[in-house]
Design a protein that fits this description.
With 312 residues, the chain is an alpha/beta fold. It has a single domain, classed as Glycoside hydrolase/deacetylase (TIM Barrel, Alpha-Beta Barrel), CATH 3.20.20.370. The protein is 45% helix and 13% strand. Strands 1, 2, 3, 9 and 10 form a 5-stranded parallel β-sheet that branches. The chain has a 4-stranded mixed β-sheet with strand order 4-5-8-7, with helices on both faces. Strand 7 and strand 8 form a beta hairpin. The two termini are 33 Å apart. The structure holds zinc ion (ZN).
């Protein structure tokens, strides 16, 4: 794949021409803005916050007040603490409604050095939206977040698939990148595509209703054990080390409530950090990887592969 070549080429340059600088980079865990010395890229990403998706699905109990969801009050602080301990920066794709319900939480994410991306207003199933609804939902989130001085440059579609209009629309609204489900990164109509793969998603591994999706990717219909998911993530990191290009790890705060799940996430990120220290892998929020790709278009000429569905 072309991105393998692109990233691999950088690795050769690092090793052959810049041994001193490489040593400097190894000692800096936050070396997220040093393009030109990059090998392979991993982004740590989180999707969903609060009750937005449950409101959209109509499953949020009417008698429970909004603005006190455990994923924000309890899990998010634990995740931020973990990232701080490990010296890693991540991208949080959150629904726009959270800008109204949890303004301080979103500002806290940014203040801790992470990126906030957009994940629809209330987790609307993206590929099912009409063009007018897509426009409305994208346009609603931007001013809500800009009131908090947050400008999302990236978008991840709930359920992973875009519509045929999404790429152009996102580009026109000033987004730099998009992170749908898919298998290879690159540039599409001026928009960077940084795909995630379902087997690298905690919800895919652990939640019962992802059974048919698991079968589609060769796993069991029944949820995977934490050890099994951990092995999947390890093998994904291993592939990145072998110059497989870009990897987006995807966790959900509401899923990571369970201690054994959290432990898998923590250990995986510790393993990632070791790879970073070794100078084997670059880890950065999606926005920085997108910037890297945009500034090296010649290395990313192959059309990216990602999920687009047409409404039925
Ligand atoms: Zn989601």
């Amino acid at each position: 794949m072309q991105k393998e070549v692109a990233f691999a080429a950088k690795k050769v340059i690092v090793v052959v021409e810049e041994p001193v600088e490489e040593a400097v980079i190894r000692s800096d865990p936050n070396r997220t803005l040093i393009p030109g010395l990059i090998v392979d890229a991993v982004s740590i990403t989180f999707d969903n916050l609060g009750e937005a998706a449950e409101l959209e699905r109509g499953t949020w109990p009417k008698d429970i007040p909004l603005g006190q969801h455990y994923s924000v009050t309890r899990i998010l602080p634990t995740i931020l603490k973990m990232l701080d301990e490990l010296g890693l920066s991540a991208t949080f794709f959150v629904e726009g409604l959270n800008a109204e319900l949890y303004p301080q939480a979103l500002q806290g994410i940014v203040a801790a050095g992470h990126e906030v991306g957009y994940h629809a207003w209330r987790h609307e199933e993206w590929h099912k939206l009409s063009y007018a609804d897509e426009v409305r939902i994208l346009e609603r989130g931007l001013p809500a977040m800009s009131k908090l001085a947050i400008r999302p440059y990236g978008f991840r579609p709930p359920r992973g698939a875009l519509t045929a209009s999404s790429v152009k629309l996102l580009k026109n609204l000033g987004f730099t990148y998009c992170s749908p489900a898919g298998s290879s990164s690159g540039i599409s109509e001026g928009l960077v595509i940084l795909p995630f793969e379902w087997p690298h998603v905690d919800a895919y591994a652990y939640l019962a209703h992802f059974g048919s999706m698991r079968e589609k990717f060769g796993n069991s219909h029944t949820p995977l054990s934490p050890a099994h998911f951990h092995a999947n993530l390890r093998s994904a990191l291993g592939k990145v080390v072998q110059n497989q290009g870009y990897l987006s790890l995807l966790f959900h705060p509401f899923v990571e409530e369970k201690e054994e799940y959290f432990e898998v996430m923590y250990s995986t990120l510790e393993e990632l950090r070791t790879l970073i220290y070794d100078g084997t892998v670059w880890s950065a929020p999606c926005r920085e990887v997108a910037y890297w790709i945009l500034s090296h278009p010649i290395d990313f000429e192959t059309t990216p592969s990602f999920d687009v569905q047409h409404p039925v």
